[in-house]
Amino acid sequence: MTATEAWKLDVLRGVADVLGDTENGLTGSQIADLLGRLRFPDPQPAASKRARLLEAFIARHNQDRSAKRIVTFITYAMAPAGYVGSQHLFTWRQDHLNEVLTFAGLRVTDTGQVARGASSSTLDEAARHAASLQSELRRRRTHAEVLRYCTLEVFAKNNFHAQLEAAKSVFDRLRVLSGSHGDGAQLVDDVLALGQSGMPKIAINSLQTPTERDEQKGFANLIKGLAGLYRNPVAHDPRLTRAVADDELLELLTTLSMIHRRLDTAAVR
């Protein structure tokens, strides 16, 4: 499928859903401006931005019997000059559009143009072919607490600071759950160490067997290791001398997600 061929309704709907998204989509006035400039039918009474765009896309698509003008609309909407100071917004729209457009064998480039891309027939293929951190994080079901701390940095493709902010999420969670203060290894020992009583403030299991107690100790050591390996060096090294590859960031965020999921079911006293 190409830009000059007819698209399936689901692809048109997907593009309308992204560009008409409540939080990250185009504003109502931006939609009206683009529909007018590109001579699309404008169903202004539509119930929502998504519905307005979808109706306009379907009408123009049926008129042309191709998706050529839909591609033109996307190109205008994704012109990089309109995103100065809002790179995270461009990245969000680009990534979400690419997950939809892969079902048409297309993608949005970093210059805002629509070009040929990989073709997908399943959601997993779409996530992989979108080739973005965001889509891969969604595919891996990254824990919400991790994303809450580093989403803006990921959207801005700032892996260095995304790594630092994501690592902070675990220590902040420990403080919130336990009411303890401090940071780093001292905090981990304070809330996770068995201590003389054998009853830590936060326990990830019942601690009834040697295996469970070893697991608790390993969990604490894992968090300490992450601080030493990822958080502390990033906090002290300048960004220019420490590159963080996408794969390294994904591995860290996946590990942090596992830690948060264990804390989701932990007992707190």
Task: Describe the protein.
With 269 residues, the protein is mainly alpha-helical. It folds into two domains: 9-139, no CATH class; 144-268. Helices cover 61% and strands 4% of the residues. It has twelve helices and four strands; from the N terminus they run αααααββαααααβααβ. The chain has helices at 9-19, 28-37, 49-64, 68-77, 87-101, 123-130, 133-139, 144-155, 159-178, 184-192, 210-236, 246-264, and strands at residues 106-108, 114-116, 202-203, 267-268. The strands form two sheets. The chain has a two-stranded antiparallel sheet with strand order 1-2. Strands 3-4 form a two-stranded antiparallel sheet. Helix 9 (159-178) packs parallel to helix 10. The radius of gyration is 23 Å and the shape is elongated. The protein starts with 8 loop residues before the first helix and ends with a strand. The model has no long low-confidence stretch (mean pLDDT 87).
Key descriptive features of the protein:
12 helices, mainly alpha, two-stranded antiparallel sheet, two-stranded antiparallel ribbon
In a few lines, what is going on in this structure?
This protein is mainly α and 269 residues long. Helices cover 61% and strands 4% of the residues. It is built from twelve helices and four strands.
Main β sheet profile: 2 strands, antiparallel
Helix content: 55-70%
Given as residue ranges, the uncertain stretches (5+ residues, pLDDT < 50) are none
Oligomerization state of this entry? Answer: single chain
The total of beta strands comes to 4
Kindly report the spatial arrangement of strands forming the biggest sheet. 1-2
Gyration radius, in Å: 23 Å
Structural class comes to mainly alpha
How do the SSEs run, as a string of H and E? HHHHHEEHHHHHEHHE
